[in-house]
Design the sequence.
């Protein structure tokens, strides 16, 4: 179990990523709002030892309030023997935490989640009386977790949405960043809008944002710089600076833009920080193709799974027979998987040219044998939008 | 020679080609070594029952062309370009070639020997590394890249070596221009006609891929011959063209390897062996063989010292031994050298014997020297 000492939107963001979490919010208004959103909330002052003493010390404590308050709570929590994770409000003041002996200091919510879950982590939860009769579909494992097995009476059941849970069942969950990516990958989408961008391309970006229920933020290119509102102030920054600020702010999950010509440096800059959607003005993604052209295909598979949840069937073309070992990752989603049996590059081009609205591929391109020039022809194709991952 | 005698010779060669890999596997030597040795046994050196004929010469020449074509097909440009060792490997090759050239000049031999001494048998290098299980390690990859670079460069130098006059050199560059144009064209064809190209790699009975590949090979060989350039350059470039354009395609490559190593290439090796007169090599030949063996180790072991900072002294020297392994391309070079009059028959016999001994000795020395129980990289 996780005890989250936080308030407002930040508390909601963190709690939504944790499978079993109680929020201790000292602000009555915020606590009320969080409770209305369905979170388990306790409106108390966590710096009061009596409040923390109510919890099992096996629980993990996450401090994500103001730095001064966090440190105050940390002192109490350490005395009581809790394992403490802290999200520093101001990274420059991390020394305060260090001086209190808190080893897990995380500068952002995302790094907190990866620290907690160490990428992917498996754990089990006992089904209590209150969950008896609930279907798996109704069970909310949190954004970062998914049920991969259900243990009942000494047997392992394969999970499916309509499976009815019984008190006494044990749920096997896998949690991690990868799971979150497949469930709800995009909260905020940034549209890098250039002067040449057509209405159709802008509409496509809006369509994607709507489908994923994500916010669409626009940076408009004026001359060589991007006019944007960042950290509460209007500014005009270069692409490199914009990407740096966005990365630091931890808010964005996807960049949508257009590319009129091959520009390896720009695309590498964007893709190394965020998945990048190269728009072509498609109204919908009825046909989606994932070309698995990297040796570590998790990112492509996760995004393909996410798109299959929001847009329907996705065809996944494995360019290397070795990639079949990732096949188990496809079982629960609407993916059609095919392995290239001839020449992977030729098969990829043939499949791509058979007409898709969206193609997903990797810029690393270290599996299969797609020639760099051919890869760029695919990325710059006017008929198909391309989502490029690192 | 009667038709029956011609068929008898072809039948005998086919039987030798069939049994060679079976015996080679038992006694753990490369099949090529046995093909050449059995060729010697049945050829002019001993039994003298392999008769020359137009048929045999044609099949053998086609085997040589196929060998060069497959050597080109084996060039993995991606592996070479992605390697973090490429710059050092180029220095290694340049040093090796310079030392070989210095030796040949000092010994009063033709530069042909320098090319032969710098060459390396990529296939044997990869097999030995696989056998020890280090082909994917940094040291293994370094050896593969070094072998590929040496193989490609010596193959190219060998083709150029036999050119005579400015016109031929100009023609050789014309072929390279055709090669570059064909590469660009190939990529366009893949992009615009993927459906058609995918048939090259399918299992359709018409075997479009095999036919297309052979057509490309023969077109390049024909172009080379037409321009008066050595046919092996055309065959080699055709192989490289397919390799870098399609960048893989196991099924098709397997079929081409099957055709080449299953029939034509063994004929070339057996015929080459049959035409060597061991007796002609004599005592002088023995001296040349020993000298070449010693020099072939030195010209690889000294340059390999540049890798001492990366892998330590013992590993670096062991690399020198492995890189001194000779086989198919050396034999091909010898065959062309004899035909063009660059080397004499006794020299050819000595060179072939040197190649066989090198192919057996170098990997053995590498295995003895390679420090298996030391840390993998330093």
Sequence:
């Amino acid at each position: 179990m996780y005890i989250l000492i936080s308030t407002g939107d930040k508390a909601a963001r963190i709690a939504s990523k944790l499978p079993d979490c109680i929020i201790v919010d000292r602000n009555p208004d915020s606590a009320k709002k969080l409770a209305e959103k369905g979170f388990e909330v306790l409106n108390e002052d966590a710096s009061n030892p009596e409040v923390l003493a109510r919890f099992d010390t096996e629980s993990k404590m996450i401090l994500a309030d103001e730095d001064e308050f966090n440190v105050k709570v940390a002192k109490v929590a350490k005395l009581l023997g809790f394992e403490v994770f802290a999200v520093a409000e101001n990274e420059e003041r991390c020394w305060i935490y260090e001086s209190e002996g808190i080893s897990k200091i995380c500068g952002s919510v995302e790094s907190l989640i990866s620290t907690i879950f160490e990428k992917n982590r498996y754990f089990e939860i006992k089904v209590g009386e209150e969950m008896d009769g609930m279907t798996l579909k109704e069970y909310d494992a949190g954004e970062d977790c998914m049920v991969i097995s259900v243990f009942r009476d000494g047997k392992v059941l394969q999970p499916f949405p309509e499976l009815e849970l019984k008190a006494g069942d044990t749920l096997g969950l896998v949690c991690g960043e990868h799971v979150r990516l497949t469930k709800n990958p995009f909260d905020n989408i940034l549209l890098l809008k250039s002067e040449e961008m057509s209405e159709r391309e802008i509409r496509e970006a809006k369509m994607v944002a709507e489908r994923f229920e994500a916010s669409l933020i626009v940076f408009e290119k004026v001359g060589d710089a991007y006019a944007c509102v960042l950290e509460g102030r209007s500014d005009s920054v270069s692409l490199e600076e914009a990407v740096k600020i966005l990365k630091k702010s931890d808010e964005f999950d996807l960049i949508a833009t257009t590319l009129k010509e091959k520009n390896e440096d720009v695309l590498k800059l964007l893709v190394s920080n965020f998945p990048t959607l190269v728009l072509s003005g498609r109204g919908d993604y009825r046909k989606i193709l994932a070309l698995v052209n990297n040796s570590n295909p998790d990112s492509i598979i996760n995004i393909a799974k996410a798109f299959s949840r929001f847009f329907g069937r996705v065809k996944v073309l494995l360019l290397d027979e070795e990639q079949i070992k990732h096949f188990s990752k496809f079982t629960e989603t609407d993916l059609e998987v095919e392995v290239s049996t001839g020449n992977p590059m030729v098969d990829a081009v043939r499949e791509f040219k058979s007409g898709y609205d969206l193609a997903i591929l990797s810029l690393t391109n270290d599996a299969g044998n797609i020639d760099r020039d051919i890869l760029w022809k695919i990325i710059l194709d006017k008929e198909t939008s391309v989502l490029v991952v690192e | 020679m009667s038709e029956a005698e011609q068929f008898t010779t072809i039948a005998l060669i086919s039987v030798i080609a069939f049994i060679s890999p079976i015996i080679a596997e038992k006694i753990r030597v490369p099949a090529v070594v046995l093909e050449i040795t059995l060729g010697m046994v049945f050829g002019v050196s001993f039994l003298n029952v392999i008769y020359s004929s137009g048929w045999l010469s044609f099949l053998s020449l086609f085997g040589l062309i196929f060998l060069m074509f497959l050597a080109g097909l084996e060039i993995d440009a991606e592996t070479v370009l992605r390697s973090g060792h490429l710059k050092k490997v180029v220095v290694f090759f340049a040093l090796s070639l310079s030392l070989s050239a210095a030796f040949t000049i000092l010994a009063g031999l033709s530069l042909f020997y320098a090319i032969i001494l710098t060459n390396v048998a990529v296939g044997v290098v990869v097999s030995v590394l696989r056998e020890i299980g280090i082909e994917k390690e940094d040291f293994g990859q370094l050896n593969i890249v070094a072998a590929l670079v040496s193989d490609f460069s010596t193959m190219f130098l060998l083709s150029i070596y036999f050119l005579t006059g400015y016109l031929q050199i100009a023609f050789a560059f014309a072929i390279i221009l055709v090669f570059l144009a064909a590469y660009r064209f190939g990529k366009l064809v893949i992009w615009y006609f993927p459906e058609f190209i995918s048939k090259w790699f399918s299992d359709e009975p018409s075997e479009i891929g095999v036919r297309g590949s052979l057509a490309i090979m023969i077109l390049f060989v024909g172009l080379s011959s037409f321009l008066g350039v050595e046919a092996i350059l055309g065959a080699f470039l055709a192989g490289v063209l397919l390799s870098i354009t399609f960048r893989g395609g196991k099924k098709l490559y397997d079929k081409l390897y099957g055709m080449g190593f299953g029939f034509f290439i063994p004929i070339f090796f057996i015929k080459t062996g049959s035409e060597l007169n061991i007796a002609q090599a004599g005592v002088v030949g023995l001296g040349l063989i020993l000298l070449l063996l010693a020099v072939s180790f030195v010209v690889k072991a000294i340059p390999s010292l540049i890798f001492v900072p990366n892998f330590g002294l013992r590993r670096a020297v062991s690399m020198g031994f492995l890189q001194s392994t000779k086989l198919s391309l050396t034999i091909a070079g010898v065959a062309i050298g004899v035909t063009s009059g660059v080397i004499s028959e006794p020299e050819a016999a000595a060179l072939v014997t040197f190649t066989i001994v090198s192919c057996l000795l170098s990997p053995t020395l590498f295995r003895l020297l390679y420090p298996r129980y030391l840390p993998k990289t330093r």
The interface with chain B takes residues 341-347, 349-350, 353, 369, 371, 373-374, 377 of chain A (CB under 8 Å). The longest strand of chain A covers residues 145-152. The mean pLDDT of chain A is 81. Residues 87 and 106 of chain A are 5 Å apart (CA to CA).
